[in-house]
Amino acid sequence: MAEESSHEIDMLLGRMKSATSPLREILRELHSRLSGNHAGTVADYIPELATANPNSFGLALCTADGQIVEVGDCGTQFTIQSVSKPFMFGLAIEDHGVDHVLTKVGVEPTGEAFNAIVLDEVSNRPYNPMVNAGAIATADLIQGKDYPERVKRMVDLFSKFCGRDVFVDNSVFMSERLTGHRNRAMAHLMRNFGMMGERFEEALELYFQQCSILVTAHDLAIMGATLANGGVNPITKTRALQSENVKYLLSIMMTCGMYDFAGEWAFRVGIPAKSGVAGGIVAVVPGVLGIGLYSPRLDAKGNSVRGVEACKELSQRFGLHAFESHFSGEKLMDLFALKRGR
User: Fold this and answer.
1) How many CA atoms lie within 13 A of 185 on its CB side?
2) Contact predicate 292/286, CB 8 Å
């Protein structure tokens, strides 16, 4: 199959039809085929999420130098949910340094559900910042003289990564607040063990806010490309994260980013990624590009069914796996070059 896919790409490169981007055609074919996959269900444990159109599907790629190719519903807005977690982890590291952050949250995969009320039995830390407990502990670390300033810093962070002003969906925020009893239980448990400070209830509110930021598949591709570009947004040229801290986000995304499917994801897809229960996925090929996907039908692990399948195919077709013996992502970049007419 790999040889056939390689031959297919070589033929596309050979044709070089100026009227149509070969890469766009590849993505259109992939999008069309996966649109027929109706497996999975839309999340409904947060009532507002249940209103999503189950047939929405967007797929976008953005290179580290700012070229974008996208197909499908890439302008459809949805809430970022858990895709926010690695980015807030990065902000916490910039506020306190990685060593201090690791005294409050670990970096080990759990094998547990993302909303499990589980702490490390030895350290009493949440296992990693990609599960809810760890993300709440991370939110507690975000600096600011008061709650409004902390919210502003959070919104500014995502605005820099997206390259535009972003906003909180208040209806989803209120829905999260009204149904977030498990998350409150986690916060109280961590406060009991000293993993969160006196403002832990405020941190919980901040966590609900971060999950309710509105984004698109287009935005997620740019966010991924910003990480691929060492923390600098390739569209706006604005630095969103210090380059020395990007590796920490990519590491935790690779090992813990896809809930309790993270091990198989690393095995089969092999690139850093983070998913969210609204149906978004951001994935990163360091130094090359970011991938943004949106499709709200989820599998039993909480990951977008079509999003996972799209990433599997892109990784296999273009040799994007981190441990490919002969990295062949150059073919993907060649297709971008054809798009630009070089």
Assistant:
1) 9
2) no
Q: Which fold has domain 2-82+213-339?
A: Beta-lactamase (3.40.710)
Q: Would strands 289-294 and 58-63 be described as parallel, antiparallel, or unpaired?
A: antiparallel
Q: How many Cβ atoms from other residues are within 10 Å of residue 70's Cβ?
A: 20
Q: Report the alpha-carbon distance of residue 203 to residue 134 in Å, rounded.
A: 12
Q: State pLDDT tens for residues 234-271.
A: 999 999 999 999 999 999 999 999 988 999 999 999 99
Binned at pLDDT 50, 70 and 90, residue 20 comes out as: very low
Question: pLDDT tens digits, residue range 202-213?
Answer: 999 999 999 999
* CB distance 79 to 56 below 8 Å: no
Query: The tokens of 198 are what?
Result: 């006196």
Residue from 9, 38, 107 nearest 299 by CA: 38
Single-letter amino acid, residue 98: V
Distance CA 39, CA 97 (A): 42
306: Cα within 13 Å, side-chain hemisphere: 28
Catalytically annotated residues:
82, 85, 207, 259, 277
282-291 per-position pLDDT tens digit = 999 999 999 9
215 sits in which H/E element: strand 214-215
Nearest to 317 by CA among 18, 30, 15, 32: 30
Entry field: residues in the chain: 342
Token digits of residue 89:
């982890």
85-210 topology per CATH: Beta-lactamase (3.40.710)
At 152, give phi and psi (nearest 5°).
Answer: -60, -40
Antiparallel, parallel or unpaired: β 41-42 and 297-298: antiparallel
Q: Which residues face 167 on adjacent strands?
A: none
Farthest-apart Cα atoms in the chain, separation: 65
264: number of Cβ within 10 Å: 12
Domains of the chain by residue range: 2-82+213-339, 85-210
Nearest-10 Cα torsion for 310, 312, 316, 322: 120
CB 174 within 8 A of CB 47: no
Tell me how far apart the alpha carbons of residues 169 and 77 are, in angstroms, rounded to a whole number.
10
